[in-house]
Amino acid sequence: QEEINHYRNVHRISVVGKHVPEPTRNFDDFPVEQGIIENLKNCGYVEPTPVQKQAVPIMLEGRNLLACAPTGSGKTAAFLVPLINDLKGPKKKGFRALILCPTRELAKQTQRECVRLSEGKGFRVHIISKINKAVAQYGPNSSQKFDILITTPNRLCFLLNQDPPAISLTNIKWLIIDEADKLFETGNRGFREQLDQILLACTNKEKKIAMFSATYTPVVAKWCVHNMKGLIRITIGQRNA
Ligand code: ADP
Ligand code: ADP
Ligand code: MG
User: Fold this and answer.
1) How far is the CA of 193 from the centre of ligand 2 (A)?
2) Which DSSP string do the residues of 171-220 spell out, in sequence order?
3) Which residues of the chain form beta strands (DSSP E)?
4) Residue 170 near residue 206 (C-beta atoms within 8 A)
């Protein structure tokens, strides 16, 4: 345990929560499918970043997580790796993972990284582009041949508000909220109400939630403590850096 604490200190990882899994040292030590490790290496990544070392084993254990780490510290792969491993392969059950982003540009970037890291797996990774097309594409009469949805909250709520709803979130196993600090900022078109609506639509009792943020924000932390059972919080570097 002392050795683990030392390793966390060296990498400026601080953790709060019960039974926090230990950080993983190398990509080869991630208990994930070999293909994913190869995809990471094919990106030119040599070693996991601190947030990846600590967040990946936590998510692989199916724990709810709030992770705060500076911009550019590799948060995208930190949530994509466990998510891709957990979904295993494509299914016809509709979306099983949902990633919320503050901007469409970030959604596109995240989609690109998701495609790279899941190469060879055959997942259908979607962003909602044409909203009118989306109603038919994802509605009750669609094929349900899609796995991962990456979107801004506005578009998703627009689809949920159709009668009947133009998208089903009942099979969502993982809800990821990226750049949570930005999404929670006041004036962001009522993100909190949107999030409540989205959560209500994710009816799977087994679903897990992971939030990622560049800064430690009290409103975000408060939301997590209230809404996420068995929460683990991790911070990389200094709080409020
Ligand atoms: P954040 O979301 O924390 O701002 P990103 O996930 O966008 O960071 O990653 C920032 C950059 O670091 C990206 O160009 C990404 O490809 C790269 N990156 C991610 N993980 C690693 C790693 N383990 N080693 C080297 N580069 C990495
Ligand atoms: P974001 O990029 O955050 O998703 P948008 O500006 O695309 O934000 O806003 C999406 C919202 O705009 C939806 O809530 C919906 O009400 C409305 N909207 C966008 N396109 C259409 C459209 N073609 N028909 C009707 N409403 C639309
Ligand atoms: Mg990011």
Assistant:
1) 16
2) T--EEEETTHHHHHSTTSTTHHHHHHHHHHH---TT-EEEEEESS--HHH
3) 13-16, 65-68, 97-100, 125-127, 148-151, 174-177, 208-213, 232-236
4) no
The rounded Å distance from CA 48 to ligand 1 centre is 9
Q: Are strands 13-16 and 232-236 parallel, antiparallel or unpaired?
A: antiparallel
Residues lining ligand 1, CB < 6 A? 45, 48-49, 52, 69, 71-77
Cα atoms in the 13 Å half-sphere on the side-chain side of 103: 5
Residues making up the chain, counted from first to last? 241
**Alpha carbons 93 and 18: distance in angstroms, whole number:** 33
Per run of 10 residues, the mean pLDDT along the chain (length 241 residues) is: 95 97 98 98 98 98 98 98 97 97 97 98 95 90 94 96 95 98 80 95 97 95 96 85 40
ipTM, two decimals, is 0.88
| Predicted model pTM | 0.94
